[in-house]
């Protein structure tokens, strides 16, 4: 079955690719898209990020199989850092 998206017709069996890199670097979607800004995903700002704007591992049943592995790997790295080192706030760091 064909699908109509606006003025574009997508015919049955047509491959569709989402340009993820372009979405993640689109100035219409993100302010300063090339700037590393982890605060854009903070609990206060997370609600403003629409579901389809940030999709690093894809969506649906065919999403990246590395998703769970990547998250597990980051958790293990953080736990190892916490286990091996002592972390302290510097004098200028505001404690929340």
TrEMBL record:
GO terms for MF: heme binding; iron ion binding; monooxygenase activity; oxidoreductase activity, acting on paired donors, with incorporation or reduction of molecular oxygen
Cofactor: heme
Domain of life, per lineage: Eukaryota
Pfam families: p450
Mode of membrane association: Peripheral membrane protein
Gene3D superfamilies, sorted: Cytochrome P450 (1.10.630.10)
Entry GO terms, CC: endoplasmic reticulum membrane
InterPro entries assigned: Cyt_P450, Cyt_P450_CS, Cyt_P450_E_grp-I, Cyt_P450_sf, Insect_CytP450_Detox
Entry keywords, A to Z: Endoplasmic reticulum, Heme, Iron, Membrane, Metal-binding, Microsome, Monooxygenase, Oxidoreductase
Binding locations of heme: 64
Localisation per UniProt entry: Endoplasmic reticulum membrane; Microsome membrane
Family designation: Belongs to the cytochrome P450 family.
Alphabetized PANTHER family for the sequence: CYP9F3-RELATED, CYTOCHROME P450
Name by which UniProt lists this protein: Cytochrome P450 3A43
Organism in which the protein naturally occurs: Araneus ventricosus
Gene behind this protein: CYP3A43_1
């Amino acid at each position: 079955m064909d699908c109509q998206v606006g003025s574009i017709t997508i015919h049955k069996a047509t491959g569709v690719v989402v340009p993820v890199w372009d979405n993640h670097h689109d100035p219409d979607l993100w302010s300063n898209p090339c700037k590393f800004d982890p605060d854009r995903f903070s609990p206060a700002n997370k609600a403003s990020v629409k579901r389809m704007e940030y999709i690093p591992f894809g969506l649906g049943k065919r999403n990246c199989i590395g998703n769970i592995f990547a998250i597990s790997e980051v958790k293990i790295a953080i736990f190892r850092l916490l286990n091996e080192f002592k972390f302290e706030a510097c004098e200028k760091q505001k404690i929340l």
